[in-house]
Design brief:
six-stranded parallel β-sheet, 252 residues, alpha/beta, three-stranded antiparallel β-sheet
């Protein structure tokens, strides 16, 4: 779990397009640096419009990423049938993963509702936790190199919503969510302990509707109230914001 005093950075960009392009380039650089330092890299992807746009930019500008030495995980997943266009992994494959020579065995997707665990999200969550445990056993240092996160207007990250059992989970790395206030109601999500197992956590946020939650999180709100406040990396936490999302923060 991360030290809450780990370095926190705030980066502002003129608009969403500039935010996406700069973050994608930074992501490529971080993956390459991790591979050069440790032989491979492990990242957690996020969905949503900004997260998918970032992957599309990486597809167009992949730099020197060694795709065969990359493990890909997902921060959360809608518990829907395989191939459903609303699933984060489907969108990530369409945006990036189907177009680069990543090793399919190193793309760790969460189970679908018509998969091996049927309609049981609790078992699906436990199975993904086993994947993380096995991966951790073979890895030195932090579990992930970079965990990408989007954020909702009320401060939710992954499928961790305010004042829910999932955001209060103190130990398990993966849990099922059966009452998400944002449809679909059933999901599988990494928890704050999993997020805090990343070397770096990046929160990529755009839009004035999210500015209040950004300011509260940066100021150290309780994670139960503003889940993004609990998103801290072991070495670094980076807020990547367009000017609208940063509008409630003090001027640098």
């Amino acid at each position: 779990m991360s030290d809450v005093n780990a370095q926190q950075e705030i980066r502002r960009f003129a608009d969403t397009d500039a935010l996406v392009r700069a973050t994608a380039d930074r992501f490529v650089d971080a993956v390459v640096a991790a591979q050069q330092a440790r032989g491979s890299a492990a990242v957690v992807l996020t969905g949503g419009g900004t997260g998918i746009a970032l992957l599309e930019h990486v597809r167009e500008n992949p730099g020197a990423i060694d795709w065969a030495a990359l493990d890909v995980f997902f921060g959360d997943e809608r518990f829907l049938p395989a191939g459903d266009p609303e699933r984060n992994e489907v969108q990530a494959h369409q945006a990036l993963l189907d177009h680069v020579p990543v090793d399919p065995a190193r793309v760790h997707v969460m189970a679908a509702s018509d998969g091996a665990y049927g309609s049981d999200p609790v078992t699906a969550a436990a199975a993904y936790a086993e994947v993380l445990d096995a991966f951790a056993a073979d890895r030195e240092g932090p579990l992930f190199d970079v965990h990408l996160l989007g954020m909702g207007g009320e401060g939710h990250i992954n499928s961790l919503f305010p004042d829910t059992d999932a955001v209060r989970e103190p130990e398990q790395l993966v849990v099922a969510v059966t009452d998400s206030p944002k449809p679909p109601s059933v999901r599988v999500t990494l928890t704050l302990p999993a997020v805090q197992s990343a070397r770096e956590v990046w929160l990529i946020v755009s839009g004035e509707a999210k500015a209040d939650a950004v300011a509260a999180a940066v100021d150290g709100a309780a994670p139960e109230e503003i889940p993004s406040a609990g998103a801290r990396g072991i070495e670094r936490t980076v807020w990547l914001l367009d000017e609208a999302a940063a509008s409630r923060l003090p001027q640098a």
